[in-house]
């Protein structure tokens, strides 16, 4: 009796060829599982493609709301940017996809789970660590890593076996997209000197008439409204993607350090992520106490690296989240964002929990700060350096 494998199926080149390869070369019955994380693709068509390629069963799992509430919201609270630039577009989707792959595998009594990742990428780590943590009894297969094809060979194998693929030698890009953004790589962009081709973009192009500013409402660190209209987070992100994307906001072109030790040139589109993370940070500027704010920045970088590395299902991430939830308990208020071509500024922020005290900050007559208090503070603050300079100092003026 043939073994059964659940394949994480996107409908792209690698997973379409993997579906056929698992049948032809390995003799598996394949259940294709497509997880809807907001990739703006007709998943009915993707399901039909899986069945046409030979899948025994093809399932589509809708998780956009769960993805926003349980994964993206945590990233916003953490202010998560890997290497201070990348908003974890693909990194955040892998653990929720893995979770649902495991659920489908258990429901059908499958023997294994498979993914379409290469041997030099980050996603193999994210999928496999997550799946083995959630279901150590399942075998994990990596067809792309096992067959070792060059991208051109993968295209040829697919064409030779009747697999309908979107990629070809003239369009060699690898694209991953979800609610939080798009990631584009391969082709001429593998040379970091080459400018990205203009035709790769989809989120950061004009989308019709859009406002020139928005007011984003936050409750305990999570976005809850646009211009006073409350809405679920996944809809807010979708709407903000369209607004900010129309101004060309959210393009990120970077050479990042992969977990496997390779430097990789990646191009991202993340309009809503770019705006929301900055708006959230500026709301924290008026609501977080100084030492808490500084510590949160440090832990946010660690949180981003942890998730980038595929350790979502780990006690450390859960411990970090407990800190982020407590720190975010006061991050409630509104932020006004004003857009311009290829950029934006935050030009207003307010909160009922603001630590900004006008009477302490102003230099006008309303000033209540006792300036004479500063003399003793400054002397004591610098006393250690003053003593060192007198006794041991080598300071040159």
TrEMBL record:
Domain Arginosuccinate synthase C-terminal, first and last residues per copy: 173-385
Residues annotated as binding L-citrulline: 86, 91, 122, 126, 174, 256, 268
EC number assigned by the record: 6.3.4.5
Catalysis performed (reactions): L-citrulline + L-aspartate + ATP = 2-(N(omega)-L-arginino)succinate + AMP + diphosphate + H(+)
Keywords: Amino-acid biosynthesis, Arginine biosynthesis, ATP-binding, Cytoplasm, Ligase, Nucleotide-binding
Name of a matching Pfam family: Arginosuc_syn_C
Keyword flag ATP-binding: yes
Pathway entry: Amino-acid biosynthesis; L-arginine biosynthesis; L-arginine from L-ornithine and carbamoyl phosphate: step 2/3
Main location: cytoplasm
Coiled coil (residue ranges): none
InterPro entries in the cross-refs: Arginosuc_syn_C, Arginosuc_syn_N, Arginosuc_synth, Arginosuc_synth_CS, Arginosuc_synth_type_1_subfam, AS_cat/multimer_dom_body, Rossmann-like_a/b/a_fold
One Gene Ontology cellular component annotation held by this UniProt entry: cytoplasm
GO MF annotation terms: argininosuccinate synthase activity; ATP binding
Chain ranges of the Arginosuccinate synthase-like N-terminal domain: 5-163
Binding site for L-aspartate: 118, 122-123
Cellular compartment(s): Cytoplasm
Residues that coordinate or bind ATP: 8-16, 116
NCBIfam families the record matches: argG, PRK00509.1
Subunit details: Homotetramer.
Protein family per UniProt: Belongs to the argininosuccinate synthase family. Type 1 subfamily.
PANTHER family listed in its UniProt record: ARGININOSUCCINATE SYNTHASE (PTHR11587:SF2)
Protein name as catalogued: Argininosuccinate synthase
Lineage: Bacteria, Bacillati, Actinomycetota, Acidimicrobiia, Acidimicrobiales
Gene from which the chain derives: argG
